[in-house]
């Protein structure tokens, strides 16, 4: 190895957000910008751990992915890493990386993705460090990396390490360092076969009474969908859309929601398929739709949990506990109560679930932001969620599938039955993307002040139907490592249990994004339109925050 030491200067602002460091590509293209961050990761880790270690590297295939991988190779080699596993063509979904780290017992992984943010030369790039459990590094480590970025002076690089062609599976060796290009899917597929009953899934997918459409939004999941849904489970290739990974997501916004997946949403609204699914750029998110039916992610995780016995993996492991992020609807709590399993509420971001899983206290968890997962890995997992739903459907329809004249129980039938049993949490999230950061900060400050002064308590709205009984600035005490995470969102709670939550996004790359979440439980009227049902609560939220006044925005860009 020819190792060179390079002098560098500090870049301000390399602080990882909700899920890694995300910036515009042009920022990453500045001299040593990426290099500084990568070197800072190694500087933050104990050097005796790094020496001789194994790392996993891969990304969602967005623009700058391939250049970044070469930089990581060089810096990792010079810092004493023994071996790197990299996905073929540099591609690995976030869940696949998590599964590789765990099964190969790597020290950690470097993930190259800005997830659901747009890509391309004018779009975003991102980098995230995962630890040996396969999950995102906790705040103690991301903070340590950030501290390193503020004092970095030199970078070390092995100049002669380079594998320009990442298309062929194989091993490349230098003295004391090697790079192995691995199949992007194999390890993940083995895991999925262990979790689900593939022959049952195959039977459902091949049945004429059930039609499925999958949209990879030109992100990395396309390669997984082709192999798993099509080759392994027999879904016709015609039912896969946007399954070629593209550097700019085919000029799209790889965020699976009602706004950015219009093609799929339109087909499902027309009733063309029984189930429609989409995943985000790096494959950890999922949107699942029924025939003319939107499955709210907060309901999705609750229904999966309630039906855990349909899934072979949970038959083996049992249900250790359930958890959701704070702004996610309370639907999952009703399931935890009924099944009498422990329940946890953590801040937004998957990194907060890892400790509970490692401690054997958590099996299934989810976020309202189209993130669902379990302790099979330490990241949320888009394709896993799709397979869960297929498994639940296949299990529920065992009799029907063998009687060709029976009508199949549909996805929405299962959700409606769930509401009948547990009640329904009407839920919505409003996103105001790229608003002026100053206005957003001032709005949050004014809300915080109202909360801290307790002046909101006792206030009544809409003919006194709604009364505020509690409000706070959410703080999380991790029961496992005892760490404290403050300022995780502003919560307002009403006498009927309804909640309004305000947060600023931590994944954007310019301006600010305000998120407002609405949650209202109902046991009696189950089939209303959520926007209609939540109208008053939404009104109160906009009123209290004076959002329009602070931001000049009349409407959110995305409504979930
Ligand atoms: C958003 C979501 C959060 C999710 C995060 C990462 O964060 O709200 O639930 O964990 O994205 O998802 P924020 O701070 O913008 O609200 V992904 O798919 O970008 O790794
Ligand atoms: Co993602």
Automatic annotation (TrEMBL):
Its cofactor is Mg(2+). Belongs to the phosphohexose mutase family. Its EC number is 5.4.2.2. It comes from the Eukaryota. One of its GO terms (molecular function) is magnesium ion binding. It catalyses: alpha-D-glucose 1-phosphate = alpha-D-glucose 6-phosphate. CDD domains: PGM1 (cd03085). It is an enzyme of class 5 (isomerase). Gene3D superfamilies: Alpha-D-Glucose-1,6-Bisphosphate, subunit A, domain 3 (3.40.120.10), Alpha-D-phosphohexomutase, C-terminal domain (3.30.310.50). The keyword Metal-binding applies. This is phosphoglucomutase (alpha-D-glucose-1,6-bisphosphate-dependent). InterPro entries: A-D-PHexomutase_a/b/a-I, A-D-PHexomutase_a/b/a-I/II/III, A-D-PHexomutase_a/b/a-II, A-D-PHexomutase_a/b/a-III, A-D-PHexomutase_C_sf, A-D-PHexomutase_CS, Alpha-D-phosphohexomutase_SF, PGM. One of its GO terms (biological process) is carbohydrate metabolic process. One of its GO terms (cellular component) is cytosol. PANTHER family: PHOSPHOGLUCOMUTASE, PHOSPHOHEXOMUTASE FAMILY MEMBER. Keywords: Isomerase, Magnesium, Metal-binding, Phosphoprotein. Residues 14-152, 190-289, 298-399 form the Alpha-D-phosphohexomutase alpha/beta/alpha domain.
